[in-house]
Every structure is written in structure tokens, then in C-alpha cells.
Write a structure and sequence with these properties.
Layout lengths: L1 H29 L6 H10 L1 H12 L5 H23 L25 H34 L1
Helix pairs in contact: 1-3, 1-5, 2-4, 4-5
Amino acid sequence: MKNKKKERLLMAVWLVSTIATFGSLFFSEIMKYEPCKLCWLQRIFMYPLPVIVGLALIRKDYNQIWSFLSLASIGFIISLYHNYIMLFPPELGSCGRVSCTTDYFNLFGFITIPLMALIAFLLIIVLCVAGLKMDKQAKFIVENEQE
């Protein structure tokens, strides 16, 4: 039963990371929005996730959550900073060829590409923490049964 729940959880991590990866590729390759430096950094931490989570699912290796959590946490921090400078642009100007404050996409007046990345990283973090809590609860139950 525990493995089924963990499998569903990892499937959700895989789904979120895959949608985020393909969404990112859609904006850059189809819509031709050139990514800024911070977008590239976020991609570095998002793009491996569908592959490594997918492999963990195929191999039924549910003990890799710390790896997924590490990647998502670093990406989240970068994304948080990116969203901050989108809201409060620095007076120094561009952070590269494409400004990190360029607003290519704005849905409902507040949903931007950096916000979507932030939400994706946050969802992955929440799912990973839930998986770690499952492990902790299972370990607690096993220890109490042994006593």
C-alpha cells in the first residue's frame, strides 16, 4: 500500500516536471521567446527531473526523493529571486542579452513565466516533502510494531 502511494506521488512529480519542461520548450522554441539568464538557470534544475523521476518510476526506486527535492529547492530559490526582480525591477538594467524582467507572457495581469516556474518548483517540493513524511510515518509504525 505504501509503495502505491509513493508511486502516485512520484507520478505527480513526474507530471509537474514534464509539463513545466515542455511548457518552457514551448515558449522558447514555438513562441520564440528568448530565455534570460535566470530562466536558463531554472531550466538547469527542472529539465533533469522528468528523466530521473521517470527512471525512478520505471525501476520502482522510491528512495530518490532527496535528489528530486534538492534540484527543485535550488530551482525554487532562483525562481523566487526571478519573481522578486519581476515585481521590483533593479535600476541597473539588463542581466544579459535578454533582460530578466522582460514580460513576454502575462495572463490575468499576474501570471508570468517566472511565476509558473515558481509554482512548478513549489508543487514538486510539496510532493517530495509529502513523500518524505510517508517514509517517516512508515518508519515510526515499524519501530512501534517491533516494541
